[in-house]
Amino acid sequence: GRVVRLARSRMALVVARRIEKANRNAELEPQMKLGVRTSSALDILQTSKRLSEIIRAIKTLEVSTRLSEKCCRAFAAADAPEILYALIRTCNRSLPHIELLHYVLLTLSNVARYSYLMPSVATDDSLEVLMDLTQMFRDKENIFCLSIALLERVVFSNERHMDMCRSAENAKRLKGIHSLCKRRQKMARGAPQAGPPSPSAIKYDLRRGIRSLERILQK
């Protein structure tokens, strides 16, 4: 027992030293600071044509907007949501694009946590883009759940978006998506379970997405 405790103490000391070193580096190197990294990532999104570089940039934005309200404000002030919605329109169902979409949606969701920044996320394009995404990726739980949850926030953010969502065309689309998702859910219930669900499967549970969709349809 004493040997184990000593080993854990040494490990904790090593981790603490690594964290201290990382913090010192962040202070000494401006490029490591969240704000600078956010600005740099936004520049890359607007100028780069390389998918790998764009994915790295959006991962940086996801981290900075998750950790810093100030970075969320900078993100909104730079009209970055418009850039991300335009980026979404260029994506297909390939695995690299699914990874990109995952981090784009997480980033937008991070900013949408702050009600005063919601107008920057609920743009004129947001409703159509998110509805297209929900329909196109209804069989991909992570993209579907993130996009429908963000769509719900956009719809309830102001009356204009709610009215747009209530249009005959949009209501028909959402009801069609809801019907397909309920069918998938019913089929999944009847399928044999191969072990416990993964943390990702729990987080992006289809039922959550369906509940968000039903709340939108009820309004």
From TrEMBL:
It comes from Minutocellus polymorphus. Its main location: cytoplasm. This is Uncharacterized protein. One of its GO terms (cellular component) is spindle pole. It comes from the Eukaryota. One of its GO terms (biological process) is mitotic cell cycle. One of its GO terms (molecular function) is calmodulin binding. The keyword RNA-binding does not apply. Keywords: Calmodulin-binding, Cytoplasm. It is found in: Cytoplasm.
